[in-house]
Amino acid sequence: MFLASNSIPSPEIVWWALVPVIVFAVSGLLLLTVSSLLKKESSWLAPTITLTAGIFVLFSSFPMWNKIQNDGSFAFLNDSVGVDGSTIFLTGLIAIALISTSIIARPYVHREGIPASEFYVLLLLSAAGGVVMAGANDLIVLFLGIEILSIAVYVLVALHLRKIESQEGAIKYFLLGAFSSAFLLYGIALTYGAVGTTNLIGIRNYLATTVLVEDGMLMISFALILVGLGFKVAAFPFHAWTPDAYQGAPTPVVIWMAAGVKVAGFAAIIRIFPLTFASYVDDWQIPVAVLSGLTVVFGSVVAVVQTNVKRMLAYSSIAHAGFILIGVQSSSIDGTAAVLFYLGVYTFLASGSFAIATVVGGEGDSNHNLDAYKGLAKRNPALAALFTILLLGQAGIPFTGGFIAKLGVISSAVDTKFYFLAGVAMVSAAVAAYIYLRIIMTMYSEIGESEIEEIYVPKGVWIVTSLSSAVVMVIGFIPGPFVEITKDALPILVGS
Amino acid sequence: MNLVIASTSSATFPVLPSLLIVPTVGAIILALLPRSRKDLTKLVALIFSTTTCALSLWLLSDFDSDTHSDTFQFVSRQSWISDFGISWSFGVDGISLFLIILTGLLFPIAFFAVDPDHNDRSYFAWMLLLEAGVMGVFCALDLIVFFLCFEVVLVPMYFLISRWGHGNRSYAAMKFFLFTMSGSALMLVGIITVAFLHADSVGGPITFDLIEIAESQSLTQGAARWLFLTFALAFAVKIPIFPLHTWLPDAHTEAPTAGSVILAGVLLKLGTYGLIRFGLYLFPEASHFFAPIFLTLGVVGIIYGAVVAAMQKDLKRLVAYSSIAHLGFIVLGIFALNTEAIEGSVLQMVNHGISTGALFLLVGMIYERRHTRQIDELGGLQHSAPLMAGFFTVVMLSSIGLPGLNGFVGEFLILLGTFTAHRWWAVIATVGVVLAALYLLWAYQRVFHGPAENENAEMTDLKTRETLVLLPLLALIVFLGIYPKPVINRMENSVKVLVTHIEKHVSDFEEPVNRRSSGEIKIDIHKSEEGH
């Protein structure tokens, strides 16, 4: 209707729906400005602002959730930003990942002498990018979100200035990431070429109503978009950066990469593949299924031969990405709900697990060999117990959230008759159980009295690990309400 | 007061869920117990395990063995994840009843018997969690709840072996965990597939309810056979059936005494029980189709277990291998698919739990005194420990299957049932009975007979506590050997219902009739061939 008037069309903006992006971006920029004006760096200013922003967004998502559930989803800004259950749900997860990262980072940044304000500024900007991705209703907006998210993370990975691995990981991540962005952009361009629009609703409607005589270009664009997004979520064979980047990056950043970046990546994937390309499901389902199977197998098997715990967890995060992709390939309501559920559980699993790695890693963040965990149960029984819960959760043992998450994605694969995929995934999960057990076994192995040295555990680490293990256990015992939430959080593409 | 509660509210009191809840609560209390009150740990563990035991005995007294009653009793249902159609549904029939009681009995015994230096809170907490999981497996009537419990018992067992075991315990614990977890990995896919295919063909929402799926038999023959294999693989690892048994000797040998007792007494039964409840009942046609394979593997297990047991140098390992042989018998009986053999198998599950549990306790007592389990280093123990030798003799004879003791009744029923249906398998299996006598008597001879030298001569005999622990087991061995009727009566109805269920769903199958039970005492070989 704006187009009808003579004035320059200015799209309608629903400001309250943009609160998360605005809060993250503005507090990031504010922090940047303030900290550059301050003569002496303040150790509490940056974490406080970040934490406040995270908590504010987390709590603001509750009224937004209620509003969406009551009034329905909608899109604005010329349909380029959509707000639905999944947007709010994933924004909440991103906020949770941001909160735990910033809690863990405060003592860490102090200990390692990392420039504090830069760290938090980049984290906030990256979170803003993630939220943009969660609400993207247009491929261009999606690309903007990915770039905002990624570029900040490239720098975050390199931020441990005294560690050469940090730079190495960052370079690898950046180079491969730049390539993948190019792939994604090329895929977007080809989609535009084939369909004539970059708007997700437009693409979906066009594909649903038009039979393309020549759909080669579209197929290539599917492949290119899959490569670009597969890179972000570390799916095989686009995972190569993951172990190095995880190992080299400052450990709190790994929490953000494993939880936040993965959530944002899958936010884009579940909007694009099962929704936008819904009518071409036969063309992309098999490739995604193959990719998911390979990712699970690769992540699980390669994890087994690692001796560095951060690398183990990096490969296990690849395996988890594979499991989540299984939910994506089913392209069903239950499958997408399972993806959201898995992302929710994994956010807590990753936050807690890597939080413990920051503590054990010790001064210099380099002590991540399996031996460093030897006798942890003697040195700090509570920490070892919490880590055990988190690892059993990652292994998908019954009565942890990890099991329900796996149950969901495996059901979705069975539902779409991909029995072989379901079987392969479960067997790989049993293989992957080995690494979690190995860490547990190392923690509980006997050590001499002389080797028992006190391990300093900051308060923040306690908060994050105990809360996340509690959540993992609660979801394991009472999954019903959480499953309901993910069913309400399904993404839907609605135009205005 | 208790009697009043039992008589008035037995229908409403959720006795089956409490079998899970009581030990879990015990474990939580133990975990929260302050470090300074270490003296209380064993007491708390005993209180909660005896309460569970009392609850399981209550089941026995209230169990209705009337042939007209429903198969599953004490049924309780509580929705858990309504979106997935999963509910906490529990029930017992004559098959699971005695396994629940066995579990209820063995845990307090294992607690009493445990080495005094195990005053760890976590040790007892893990044991109680293990009990809850095992009870869950035996009560569950929901496929997912069954799987949850079946799988979750790995965690406590893993910690029990890896933290309180002997020698090469981390290796044994890891092997145990990975073997059984890989085995059941496909079962989860199988369970989900069963539920989806059932919902597809029947229409209506997804359900994991065992009775509903098993009674409707809605799956196609091909699908059911494949799915049966995914279940059977999980059970075959857990039982273990040859050639998937390699985790067992390690796990049994390295586990602490109480762990071995529970592992052999109860955990192995999860597999055989699973075969009956989720193999035969859920997939009658497929079980019949694959029966020859399992009969053969059962017989191979009997012979293999016996031969390998005979060659062991380690007394505990010998008992471990004898378990493989005994479980071969149970598998044989299950897949003979007739009333006698299945009754014999269920009875034998209980018998094996009692006698192997007692054997592991005795071996543990020897180890505590002599710090070795090598048969060559032992000898002449009957001079220094006559009481122990006496107990060992009875338990060993029960394990061999001497008439008048419990082992005989079970093995006899299995062989009888198998003979009517699959004669040659039964004939070969009988060799196993002879071999069992060989390896056990030989081991007994080497350990207890002969001259006692050095430390063997100075070994102390059973203490009062140890005698008290063994006495109930011994009483059961004799009682079940002389008068198994109360047990068989209670399971008969359920087994018959199961066999009728199989007959109904296998077109060309009729239960081979045993002339003995139908009044014709003489077994006519020619007539019994009709059963084939």
Task: Give your account of this protein's structure.
Chain A has one domain (14-488). Chain A is 74% helix and 1% strand. Chain A has 19 helices and two strands. Chain A has helices at residues 19-37, 45-71, 85-112, 116-134, 139-157, 164-195, 200-209, 216-232, 241-248, 251-276, 281-304, 309-329, 333-361, 376-379, 381-395, 401-415, 419-443, 459-477, 480-488, and strands spanning 74-76, 81-83. The mean pLDDT of chain A is 89. Chain B has a two-stranded antiparallel ribbon. With 532 residues, chain B is mainly alpha-helical. Chain B has 23 helices and two strands. Chain B has one domain (15-531). The model of chain B is unreliable at 1-10 and 518-532 (pLDDT under 50). Chain A binds chain B through residues 392, 397-399, 403-404, 407-408, 410-411, 414-415, 419, 422-423, 426-427, 429-431, 433-434, 437-438, 441, 444-445, 479-480, 483-484, 487, and chain B through 79-84, 144, 147-149, 151-152, 154-155, 158-159, 162-163, 170, 173-174, 177-178, 181-182, 185-186, 188-189, 192-193, 196, 230.
Question: Which structural traits does this protein have?
Answer:
heterodimer, A: 496 residues, B: 532 residues, mainly alpha, two-stranded antiparallel ribbon, 23 helices, 73% helix, disordered N terminus, disordered C terminus
Short précis:
The complex is a heterodimer of chains A (496) and B (532). Chain A is built from 19 helices and 2 strands.
Stretches of chain A where pLDDT is under 50 for at least 5 consecutive residues are none
Count of extended strands of chain B: 2
- How are the strands ordered across the major sheet of chain A? 1-2
Tell me about the biggest sheet of chain B?
2 strands, antiparallel
H/E series of chain A, N to C? HHEEHHHHHHHHHHHHHHHHH
Helical amount among residues of chain B, as a percent range? Answer: over 70%
Largest interface: A-B, 32 and 33 residues
Radius of gyration of chain B, rounded?
A: 22 Å
Multimeric status of the protein: heterodimer
Number of strands of chain A: 2
Tell me, rounded to a whole number, the average pLDDT of chain A.
89
Query: What is the distance, rounded to the nearest whole angstrom, between the alpha carbons of the first and last residues of chain B?
Result: 55 Å
Strand content of chain B: under 5%
Number of helices of chain A: 19
- State the shape of chain B: globular
SS content category of chain A: mainly alpha
The residue ranges of chain B in which pLDDT falls below 50 over 5 or more consecutive positions are 1-10, 518-532
How far is the first residue's CA from the last residue's CA of chain A?
11 Å
The count of domains of chain B is 1
Tally the helices of chain B: what do you get?
Answer: 23
Secondary-structure content class of chain B: mainly alpha
